[in-house]
Amino acid sequence: VKIEVFFTPAEAATVDLEGRVAVVIDTLRATSTIVEALANGARGVLPAPSLEEAIRVAQNIGRSEVLLCGERRSLRVDGFDLGNSPLEFTEDRVGGRSLVMTTTNGTPAIVAGSAARRVLIASFLNLSAAAEAVASDGGPVAVVCAGRERRFALEDAICAGALIRRVAAAAGLDEGGGDWNDAARLAAEYARGMEGSLETVLRGTAAGRQLIEAGLEADIAYCATLDRHRIVPELRDHQMTL
Ligand code: MLT
Question: How many whole angstroms separate alpha carbon 147 and alpha carbon 139?
């Protein structure tokens, strides 16, 4: 299987995603939160690349018909119903609801990936399920890390590496091989040593430190949990659903 990892959306923009299955990762916290929301019964999550676009989409649908969610500088946006903490997206709050979400890095990365044949959402919370979905698709894979403010983010690279190691295992293939790009090889090799200490590693990243400063450190432990859910959100018609 051809597997390429892109550490930022800008890197992913250098290739033609058409024909590939794209897997978007924003470990802290957007893709973890999307997984949590759908696991808790949200009907769908519409990703918006900007605040303005999120508000416009919510108004078009009907403001009271949707939950407007997202963050800037880790915190809930004024006037929004929910922020971007997976712990907020309980069954009580999101069950049966449609969500419009905008986050600093995660939702723009999802929108950027939307040229792909399929767009799947991964995080540590649904890692094995996402890997199995990718392996059973069988097509070429582009793992798109959201990164942080257009730069490399270690937590996304580790999640990408952990994901593709599981894709290889599920497909019965050796790790690496001729069809993996250099970023995929690095990510897989690095993730191998990190999987036993995810929470500690995540706490030390720039995104982790920002969450701790914002008083949101419980989110880090939550986002570092492996395989809490066996679901794979997929973008279809501008909306992520199961
Ligand atoms: C993002 O999309 O930039 C992140 O999820 C930021 C955050 O932790 O809220």
Answer: 24
